[in-house]
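Go through this chain.

——
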Amino acid sequence: MRSVLATLLVHADQVVPVSSLIRELWDEDPPVSCLTTLQTYILNLRKLLASAAGLTSRQVASEILVTRSGGYLFRTGQDDLDVHRFHELVADGRRALSSGDDVTALATLTSALQIWRGPALVDVAAGRIIEGRRQQFEESRLVVLEYLVDTQLRLGMYREVLTELAALTADNPYHEGLHAQYMRALYLNGRRAQALEVFQRLRVNLVNHLGLEPGLIAQELHRSILNAEPIDAQGGLRRPIGDIVRMSSAGASRVY
C-alpha cells in the first residue's frame, strides 16, 4: 500500500494508469488477483486519508484520491508537498545566482536543502517508477549541494564547507566537481598536503574502477596546488543553475 501511495504522490495531480501501478507493484509477473488487490489498496488508502483529514471516504474519493478513466489521481495543493517548496526555493536561488547575489543564494539554497530529512523514498519498496524518481530526487539534491558549496567558497567560508565536502566526496567517490571543491577548500585553508591526497584518492577511484583519468579541471587544480600557485575560490561554477531540478511537482512530505 505504501508503494501505491508513493507512486501516486510522485505523480501528484496526474493520472497514474492502473497498468503502471500494477507494474510498479509486481513488475512483469502480476498475480491473477492483481486488479482486485490494487483496488483494495486504494480503498484502504482512502480510509486512512479520511481518518487523517477528518473527512469521509466519499469526500476523499471525490476530492483527494480520485478515480479517473483508466487510473487514479492524487490531488494536491501547491503547499501540500515538500517538493513544491523545494522547487520554489531552488528557483529563487537560481535567480539570485544569475544576478550575482551570493548572499541571497546562500540563504535560499540552504533553506531548500533543509527541507530534506534523509534519503528520498527510503522507506518505500522501489519498483521501476519509484527507483527512477528516487534517483532523480537524489541527483537534484546533489546538484543543489554543489552550487551551495561553490557559493560558500566564493563568500570565503572555507572552513565551514570542509565537513560537508568530506562526507560528500566519501559518498560520491567518482564526482570530480565535488572533489575539486574539496581540494580548493583544503588548499585555501592552508592544508595543501590533504588537498593533494584528495586528488590522488579521486584518481585511484577513477582509474581502478572506471579506467578513466580525472578531467582537465581537476588536473589543472592539482597542478596549481602541487606548484603552490595562488588560486581563487571561484571554481568556474558561477553560471545560472538552469534546470537543475527536473522533477515533477510531486513527492510526499516524507520523501525528504
The longest helix spans residues 128-154. Residues 91 and 162 are 26 Å apart (CA to CA).
